[in-house]
Structures are given as structure tokens and as C-alpha cells.
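the two lines:
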Amino acid sequence: MAHLHVNKFNVSIMPKVGSENAMNKIRLLFFMVLSVALLSLGRVHAGAGVKPILEDARLTLNEAAAKGFEWTTTRKLIADAEAALAAGNKDASLKLAKAALNEAQKSLIQANYAAAHWQDGIPF
Amino acid sequence: MALVRRTMKTGSGLILMALLALTAMAGADGVGQSSLDFKAMVQQDVHDFQAYYKKRFSRVEFSEYKNGVYAIDAASREQWLEMEDFPPYEFAVDEGEALFETPFANGKSYADCFANGGESIRQNYPYFDSKQGEVITLELAINHCREANGEKPLAYEKGPLAALSAYMASTSAGNVLAVLVPGEAAFQAYSEGKAFFYSKRGQLNFSCADCHLRVAGQKLRADITSPALGHPTGFPVYRAKWEELGTLHRRYAGCNKNIRAKPLAAQSRAYRNLEYFQSVMSQGLEVNGPSSRK
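prediction for all of em together
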């Protein structure tokens, strides 16, 4: 009975196992293609994201500069990010743009803090 | 209005009006009081500022602060005194004198622009010009003079303008700084200069006060920081680093660069107000410019 039972299943299972192998191969291929596509998309997005970050950095820096608190290092970071982008080095460009934005934001925070708290520096 | 008219017709209304008039008079006195108050605040600032150094460097005579770091560091002072045997700024003073005495194309000269023919007046600069509503430094006044006589302005940080300023300062040697804060608008400019002095800036997050007040006399890398008291008296200065004469605003720019803050333009409003504040704090010290520094 048990054999019959197994045979009974063999009829229906064997073709199913074969199709599952095929499906696994298809799934593997699909995920490989998807991974490559996602990685490529990520790189494209990184390149596309540099310009808005740079624009933000420029605007923030100009705001800090108008208050007299520009740092000497920030415009160079922006220029370097632009140069890297122009040279096609998108990863380096993104890294520099983020650093520029970070500095610009900090210089603006410094300006606003100084406006409100400069008296704290008086030691008497 | 009807209420006012009704009130005026009654005796109590008259009393009320009298009270209002008294209040208004008291208010007028209050304005006078406030103008006295900011003068008192400036004097309090001067007192506190100078007292801070007196306490910190108790052995240093007040009159010595005109010599910058050489007032507080014996080793540097010795080298400086040796350098002063052959003052490196002498040629610039001679050049400044020659420029000062050269008439403009219209036949007028610098002497026509300044009180006392431009001699012995350095101690009155910078001053607050109420009409223009801004601080006028000696260097700015020199260029105003040039422009009023149809000449092009000179660059502010070094060169002929520094030489002219050095010559004019040399004619004022020994005169005591007499920079005042005469009115409310002047007090505003003074306050802006004060805020600049105490504000941290640059990537290193330092203020003028951090280096030249809080840690004055201590080493920052290889250099001993000078006291802020007396900073303006000796300018323009010949700096060994520059190998030439430079103005106070050139030095401000250098300081700002050191802390990675983008320097402002020489003779910008902010730097002029800073010079104004520093000069007020240094009142009572003698003019001894030009001088030499490391």
C-alpha cells in the first residue's frame, strides 16, 4: 500500500520537481538581473543626486556668507565635487558634495548661534 | 474721543491730564537717561576689559600694552628691541611722507582734507561719523580724501596706503587714543564690533576673544598670542612674515584665515566696527605706530 501510495505520488510529483528546478533557475536569473539593475540604478541615482546636494550646499553657504561666517574650505569642496562630477567620478563627487553641504550647514548654524549667544564669550 | 472730552470737562480729568504730562516729562528724561546709560555701558566695558588684563598680567604696566605680545613675553621682547634698533618700517614712513606731500592733480593735498593738516591726529581714528552713519578709519579717510580730489582710491591692505597711514601715525606718536562713542548710532556700531570680537567663527570655531583674551599669553603652536588690549595702537605694522608694511585690516584677514574663516574685505563695515570696538577698549594707550611684529 505504501509502495502504491508512493507510486501514486511519483506520477504527479516527478514532473513537478523538474518544473521546480526550472523555476529556481528562472528565479535565480531574475534576481541576478534585478540585482544588476538595482546596482546600476543606484549608481545612476548617485550621479543624479549630486546636483541637488550641490545646489543646497551653495544656497546654504551663501546664507552663511551673507552673515559673515563662511568657512575657507567649503567653496573648494563644492568646486572639487563639480570637477569630480564633470570627470565622471560620481562616487567621489557625491562624497564631496555631501561634505560641502555638511560644512555649509555647520557654518550657518555657527552664524545663527553666534547671533544669539555671542555674549557667552565674555569672560567677565 | 467722546470719553476724552468728557474726562477733560471734569476736575478728575484735569488731574489725569496733569499726571499724563508729568509722565511724558519723565519719559523725556528717560530718553536722556538712556543716552547716558549707553555711555556708562561703554565705560563699564572699558573698565572690565582693561581690568581683566591687569589681573591676568599683574606685573605688566598698562602703558606697555601698546607693544602687543612684547609687553607680556620677555624673550620675544628682547628680539623685538634688537629689531627696533634698525626699524624695518622706516623706509615706508619716508615713502608715506613723500606721498603725503605730493599734491593731487587739482593742486590740493592730503593736508587739505584733515584737521591740523593731517598731523598728530591718528589718536582720533577711527571715529563715528554721525552724518554718514558709519565708522571712519584713517585708511578710509585717506581714500575719501583722494576721491574727493579726483584721485583713484588705493588698495587698503598694503603698499602706498599703508605707507601714508604709517607716516600719519608717526606724526602722532605718544598721543593717547581718544576714540569715543558719542551717540546711540555710534553705540550700535560699537556693539556690532563687540559682537564680532566675541563671536566664534571659522572651521576651528574660534573668536577673537578666544585667542587674544581668554588664552592671551599662551602658546598656539609656536606663537604666543598677544593681548587684544592695545592691538590698534601700533598699526600699520611691518611683519617679518609679510616682509612689508600692512594695515590692521590685513591682520584681521590673516587672523580669520588662521581659523579657517573666510576673511571679509578690508574696510568692510564689520572690520571697521571691530577696529572701533578695539580702539575704544584701548583708550588711554599711546599711539606708537608704525611698529614691527613677528
